[in-house]
Specification:
Blueprint lengths: L4 H6 L10 H29 L3 H12 L9 H10 L7 H13 L4 H29 L8 H92 L4 H31 L3 H10 L10 H15 L13 H10 L4 E6 L7 H21 L5 E7 L3 E8 L7 H5 L7 H11 L3 E6 L5 E8 L2
Parallel strand pairs: 1-2
Antiparallel strand pairs: 2-3, 3-5, 4-5
Length: 447
């Protein structure tokens, strides 16, 4: 298993300058073998130098044990190896020292200079020793053998450890760079995951707001009209039976439509499917149950149901051409509504037309709730690059009629209208008038 750079650095639990205990054990073993080798080679060195044998052995032990610090001071190890080359000792120390030097992160000129010194020292000593052996008659080869033996021996003791160390050092630096890249990628992935979670949370909140807004559009207007018609039915039940029957039929139709739309939304909530599948499941008499419901599917079902609530085809949403029908529904509920249109009517984008329709619809619903019986003026203006609408009601004839109607208000209607208009870059203003009524105005850019 590979580890990232932070884990690799955190894994350094060895003593002193060793990153791991196994590195310390390896260096200790190499130093022990090198010390034994140099001590054994110190015996002939002491005999040739004319010093006591114990001095040669101690000198060899001290020289060989320098290999213990090869990771901390590789230059010192190589210099000691070059220094003891004339004594013909420290071959293991020279090989391991050159390997360690080449694998370290040192300038190439220092590595090349020390390797060259080691090569020259080994070549000179070998040349002298082989020449002496040839002079004593130990070898009967030609004179060409002395330089050949010196060069090949020097190359054999210098080139392999140097090249291997350069390769291992390059691979080690490559692995370190890969670990750093893995660390940076891991941090970037964490940041991306956090941002994705934030965006997902934001999207969920936006979708919840959309669902609440669409369900409010579906339910609030129809139920408000139902309550108004029911109140009118109660008032004329004895005086005008024919009108009472007409109002009762209107209440029934609106109730059935509201129930149909709510069933479609609840079907999506239960099944997690789109509106078409939930409708087919409802027609079949069974609704499959899923473990989770995507908010986007519920929001789409709510939007489609809200579209059908306004009489538009599923998925397209209401349009300004249906505004007269909307005003007619309020007029049928007993409201006196005056609709005026200024400018040349033209088609707009679906979002613009749906938002304009919803603003007028919610404003009329608020009049039913809070100012029953008040005369209302609906104005629509088609301008060059925008569309403006205004719904203003006069003071209600009886201030207590709003409470008597029994229409609850959650205070979300104006908030939903403002959100819709501002989402399209428009301007929304609402508030009471000086005459005691209420005015809702909105301007939506329509390039």
């Amino acid at each position: 298993m590979t580890r990232t750079g932070e884990d690799h650095r955190a894994a350094g639990t060895g003593p002193w300058w060793w990153a791991r205990w196994r590195s310390a054990v390896l260096d200790g073993s190499l130093a022990l073998v090198s010390a034994a080798e140099c001590a054994a080679e110190g015996v002939p060195f002491a005999r040739d130098a004319g010093v006591p044998m114990a001095v040669g052995v101690v000198f060899g032990l001290l020289a060989g044990s320098v290999l213990l610090v090869r990771r901390r001071w590789p230059i010192a190890v190589v210099l000691v190896g070059i220094a003891v080359t004339p004594a013909q000792m420290g071959f293991l120390m020279g090989i391991v020292g050159l390997y360690t030097l080449a694998a370290c992160e040192l300038p190439r000129r220092i590595i090349g200079a020390l390797a060259g010194m080691s090569f020259l020292g080994t070549m000179i000593v070998t040349f002298v020793r082989v020449g002496q052996d040839m002079a004593r008659g130990d070898f009967t080869l030609g004179d060409w053998f002395v330089p050949f033996a010196a060069v090949t021996t020097s190359l054999g003791l210098t080139a392999p450890p140097l090249l291997l160390g350069l390769y291992v050092g390059a691979r080690r630096r490559l692995m370190e760079s890969l670990r750093e890249r893995a660390d940076s990628l891991e941090r970037e992935l964490q940041l991306l995951a956090e941002r994705a979670e934030e965006r997902a949370e934001w999207a969920r909140n936006e979708e919840r707001t959309r669902i609440a807004r669409e369900m409010h559009d579906v339910v609030a207007h129809r139920v408000s009209l139902m309550v108004v018609h029911a109140a009118a039915l109660q008032a004329v039940a004895r005086k005008d039976p024919e009108k009472a029957v007409k109002n009762a039929a209107l209440v029934g139709d609106m109730g059935r439509q509201a129930l149909t739309e709510l069933r479609e939304m609840l079907g999506v909530l239960r099944s997690g499917d789109g509106p078409e599948q939930s409708r087919r499941a409802r027609d079949a008499g069974s609704v499959p149950v899923a473990e989770s419901v995507p908010l986007a599917a519920v929001g789409a079902a709510a939007a489609a149901a809200a579209s059908r609530a306004a009489g538009g085809p599923g998925g397209e949403g209401p349009c300004l051409a249906e505004l007269e029908e909307l005003v007619g529904q309020s007029a049928a509920a007993g409201m006196v509504v005056d609709l005026s249109v200024e400018g040349e009517a033209r088609s707009y984008g679906p979002d613009v037309e749906q938002t304009a329709y919803r603003v007028v619809q919610e404003a009329l619903t608020n009049v039913h709730k809070h100012a029953a019986g008040a005369k209302t003026h609906v104005r629509l203006a088609h301008r060059g690059s925008e569309i403006a609408m205004q719904v203003e009601n006069e003071p209600p004839p009886e201030p207590a009629s709003a409470e008597s109607a029994g229409l609850p208000s959650g205070g979300n209607g104006l908030v939903g209208m403002r959100e819709r208009v501002l989402a399209l870059g428009g301007v929304f203003v609402s508030g009471p008038t000086e005459a005691g009524g209420f005015r809702v105005s909105a301007v939506i850019p329509a390039p």
